[in-house]
Amino acid sequence: MDAPGVHTSDGEILLKRKKFFISGVVVLAAIAYLGYVGFSISAVYYYTVSEFIEQGDSVIDQNVQVNGQVLTGSVEQEAVGRILRFSIASVDGEETVPVVYEGVVPDAFTEGNDVVIEGYLDSAGIFQAHTLKTKCPSKYVPEESDES
Questions:
Q1: Does one domain contain both 64 and 109?
Q2: Do residue 34 and residue 52 come from a single domain?
Q3: Mean pLDDT of 51-73
Q4: How confident is the model at residue 146 (pLDDT cuts 50, 70, 90)?
Q5: 55 and 74 both lie in a single domain
Q6: pLDDT at res. 92
Q7: Which of 40, 55, 61, 71 has its CA 20 to 30 A from that of 25?
Q8: How crowded is residue 121: how many other Cβ atoms within 10 Å of its Cβ?
Q9: Strands 96-102 and 114-121
Q10: What is the pLDDT of residue 58?
Q11: What region does 119 belong to: left with phi over 0, alpha with psi -120 to 50, or beta?
Q12: Hey, which residues does 66 pair with through a beta bridge?
């Protein structure tokens, strides 16, 4: 029963329910869209050096991640500033990509270690990295001691 002086019909109740349902669908669609856009912006494919080189000119000026090993003897760090130049090599060591990185160098960055770089390939064929991550070995191997 309705309260005294208040008359609501079934049509009005149905209209309120429709409005509530439509509002909920719009809110859920907006959340889903924002989630999709956020994920697609942050999702960057992870190439090996060989895969990256195979892409050719199609990756120029595209934000990508590349995994490789820091080539021994290729590391040059400027005395002033934070510019680091090095090359990364494929697993077999046959293919290399020259890299320029400007930023804080991770403590674990050394020649021969695996790294993941994120950035873009410029038109000169040099990878301009804005992110440099070092990879830890997959298995811990303790140092041998000389105690006998």
A1: yes
A2: no
A3: 91
A4: low
A5: yes
A6: 85
A7: 40
A8: 24
A9: unpaired
A10: 87
A11: left
A12: 47, 117
Whether 55 and 85 map to the same domain: the answer is yes
- Give the single-character DSSP code of 79: S
pLDDT above 60: residue 28: yes
Reported confidence tier of residue 4, pLDDT bands at 50, 70, 90: low
82, 76 Cβ separation under 8 angstroms: no
Classify residue 139: in a domain, yes or no. no
Q: Is the pLDDT of residue 140 over 70?
A: no
- The answer to whether 131 and 120 are in contact (CB under 8 A) is no
> pLDDT tens digit string along 83-115?
999 999 988 888 999 999 998 888 888 898 999
Residue 142 lies in a domain: no
SS3 of 83, please? strand
- Asked whether residue 148 is assigned to any structural domain, the reply reads no
Whether residue 73 sits in one domain with residue 88: yes
Which residues, 6+ apart, have CB-to-CB distance to 135 below 8 Å?
A: 67, 113, 114, 115, 116
Phi, psi dihedrals of residue 147, rounded to the nearest 5°: -75, 125
pTM of the model: 0.64
CATH value at residue 95? 2.40.50.140
